Amino acid sequence: MKQKYVYQVGAIALTVLLYTTMVWAEVTYSLDQMIDHAITNSSEIAASQTNHQVVAAQKDQLQASQYPQATVSETFLYTDDPVGVFGNKLRKGEFSQSDFGLNQLNDPDPTGIWWTRLQVQAPIWTGGRVQANKEILHTQDASIAKEIATIETNIRVQVSKMYYQWQSFDEQIAVIDSTIEKLFALERSYALMDAPTSATKTSFLISQAVRISMQAEKQNLQTQRALMIQRLRIATNLDLSDDLLAGELPKVGQKMIYDQPQYKRHDYKVMLAKLEIAEKKLDASSKTNMPALHSFASYNLYTGTFDTIEGAFDVGATLQWTFANSSQKHQVKEAKAHIEKLKHMIEAKKKEIQASQINAVTMHNDSIKQYALITSAMQKVDQALSVAEKRYKEGTLPLKDLSQAIQEWTAIASQKIQTQLQVALTAVQYQYEVGEL
Fold first, then answer.
1. I need a labelling partner for 302 at 20 to 30 A (CA). Which of 132, 159, 294, 392 fits?
2. Can you tell me the distance from the alpha carbon of 202 to that of 70, in angstroms, rounded to the nearest whole number?
3. Where are the alpha helices (DSSP H) in 287-437?
4. What is the SS3 string spanning 134-166?
5. Domain residue ranges of the chain, discontinuous segments joined by +
6. What is the pLDDT along the chain (437 residues), one digit of tens a residue?
7. Who's near 435: CB < 8 A, 6+ residues apart?
8. From residue 185, how far is each of 76, 79, 262 by CA, in Å?
9. CA atoms in the 13 A half-sphere facing the CB of 138
10. Residues 107, 113, 119, CA angle at the centre, nearest 5°?
11. In whole angstroms, how far apart are CA 426 and each of 27, 39, 141, 248?
């Protein structure tokens, strides 16, 4: 019985260990893993990828149009056309001397004919229309790939910014926790005082109020953090737990250098692809009236009065050329107008990108400057707080001044985190603007 109990305890311990390992595995997602998971599970990307399948089907359909096509047709004719009537009689061997009468030749008795036709037709030359449509489909396929790349980039921007904001909440909560602990220590020291003065008591009450407000701020940050994790859950489709541990905000890098605009954003590339598609459609429209040559071979089986007669075949080619097509002229005119519209939109997009890049570089470099200043201020306030705590313990600094030093330290520490977050967010925005993300 004792041995069985040991086995049960061991099994339970192993289960707990495995569960703990699984939970830990769920809370160690890196930013890259979150981005990859968000892209993999994006419904928008999945919907766009189906467009590749549509284009592939259109390519197959276009290719199939170049293969020989066989058709079978069955036609019933009831006619008094001399050609049909006498042709039918000749095939049946029923043409006689009486059929040479003038009235009979001009107005023969009508007859019924079943005409079965098996025909094979193949294009020889299509006037460049097929090749033009192939180029359109090829460009459309490339445009779809650029649209998907645009969606992926937007996901990277969205997830990166949420991830950094979530990290900043963790760091701000840590600062608030440190402040609350320092203020609690201050309150405990006040409780040990023998006869605090009225001024000291007032300072104590103010310090206590600050500590309570800090607890309220912590609650607010925790709520925002939970909401951010929920947004990340939705964006990444990951089962992120509320106690998920974040890493640190990225280290502050060097300033960005802006020499000239870079037009590498995927949404800009999509616009260029749309212009290329429009130009190819114009080329295809201009070839609508080009001559086309098709070859054909057919076997014809005629049945008159429901008796099978020997069949006949014919082989030939058809040249088709449309000389006048008002619809085609309007299509060309519309295509040219669309091209001009796209060109104006591209120029507007270039100006927008240029302004956005200048703004992104300026904001990022300004954030780095602010971070350098706030880091210097943080070093000084750390020293000031250390001196204030030492003097307070020695009894040479009033409670009010230490409380004020703690509050100043909290404000600057929080500002440092916010500035570091801005550096990270503006870096992401810059990478997006120049097409590096």
1. 294
2. 101
3. 326-394, 399-433
4. HHHHHHHHHHHHHHHHHHHHHHHHHHHHHHHHH
5. 2-40+126-289+325-433
6. 444 444 454 444 444 444 444 444 445 688 898 999 999 999 999 999 998 899 889 888 888 878 888 898 888 877 766 666 666 566 555 656 665 554 555 666 677 777 788 888 888 777 777 888 888 889 989 999 999 999 999 999 999 999 999 999 999 999 999 999 999 999 999 998 888 899 999 999 999 999 999 999 999 999 999 999 899 989 988 887 766 655 678 888 777 777 788 888 999 999 999 999 999 888 888 777 778 788 878 887 767 654 555 567 788 887 777 766 677 778 888 889 999 999 999 999 999 999 999 999 999 999 999 999 999 999 999 999 999 999 999 989 999 999 999 999 999 999 999 999 999 999 999 999 988 88
7. 262, 263, 264, 265, 266
8. 107, 114, 55
9. 8
10. 125
11. 27, 22, 33, 17
The H-assigned helical ranges of 41-128 are 43-64, 82-92, 102-106
95 neighbors 89 (Cβ within 8 angstroms): yes
Residue 207 in contact with residue 180, Cβ under 8 Å?
no
Residue entry with tokens 């094979």: 120
- For residue 237, what is the enclosing H or E element? none
Check if the beta carbon of residue 262 is closer than 8 Å to that of residue 434: yes
Q: Which one of 3.20.20.70, 1.20.1600.10, 1.10.10.10, 3.40.30.10 gives the CATH number of domain 2-40+126-289+325-433?
A: 1.20.1600.10
For residues 404 and 206, what is the distance between their CA atoms, to the nearest angstrom? 10
Phi, psi for residue 308 in degrees, rounded to 5: -70, 135
Structural contact between residues 88 and 113, judged by C-beta atoms closer than 8 angstroms: yes
Left (φ > 0), alpha (ψ -120 to 50) or beta: where does 319 sit? beta
Alpha-carbon distance of 66 to 12, in angstroms, equals: 70
Task: State the DSSP string of 275-324.
Answer: HHHHHHHHHHHHTTTS-EEEEEEEEEEEEETTEE---EEEEEEEEE----
Strands annotated E in 66-218:
69-79, 111-125
The DSSP symbol for 222 reads H
